[in-house]
């Protein structure tokens, strides 16, 4: 008499359950991952602007004006802006004596779709020389993607 052998594999129902569980988990995880990547890219832009901010502050103290990048002594290279910034570009705009903004504009490709073409700004007030994140840029980065110290 032959002995009966045990089951050697998964049933179709068991495989379908595993596929359904993986589908549900990926539907939840992918948007959260994309948001995490976008937050990291915004934090990287803030770190880049913070490094540039120090040089802009020194320029504003020495010259009494905020650089606007329009004259030869205010070039981005003189202010410590790297020639090539991964994911975006930096612009300066003087508002009044000693005040202005540094704007980081994210590229249209190579960055998270949540921040494509968006802008992130640091603003300096001329009265006391303090810096703050500024949400008044056209197409600003949404608040949920900003670093905690910018909210």
Labels describing this entry:
151 residues, alpha+beta, Glycoprotein, Type 4 Pilin, four-stranded antiparallel beta sheet, 4 strands, 34% helix
Mind sketching the topology for me?
Elements: H1 12-63, E1 88-96, E2 99-106, E3 119-124, E4 131-134
Antiparallel strand pairs: 1-2, 2-3, 3-4
**CATH class categorisation:** Alpha Beta
Helix content: 25-40%
CATH topology (level 3) name: Glycoprotein, Type 4 Pilin
Separation of termini? 77 Å
Structural class: alpha+beta
Gross CATH architecture: 2-Layer Sandwich
Order of helices and strands: HEEEE
**What count of domains describes the coordinates?**
1
Strand segment tally: 4
Alpha plus pi helix count: 1
What does this structure look like?
The chain has a single domain (14-150), classed as Glycoprotein, Type 4 Pilin (2-Layer Sandwich), CATH 3.30.700. The mean pLDDT is 83. Strands 1-2-3-4 form a 4-stranded antiparallel β-sheet, covered by helices on one side. The protein has 151 residues and is of the alpha+beta class. A hairpin with a 6-residue loop joins strand 3 and strand 4. It has 1 helix and 4 strands. The protein has one helix at 12-63, and strands at residues 88-96, 99-106, 119-124, 131-134.
Quickly describe the structure.
With 151 residues, the chain is of the alpha+beta class.
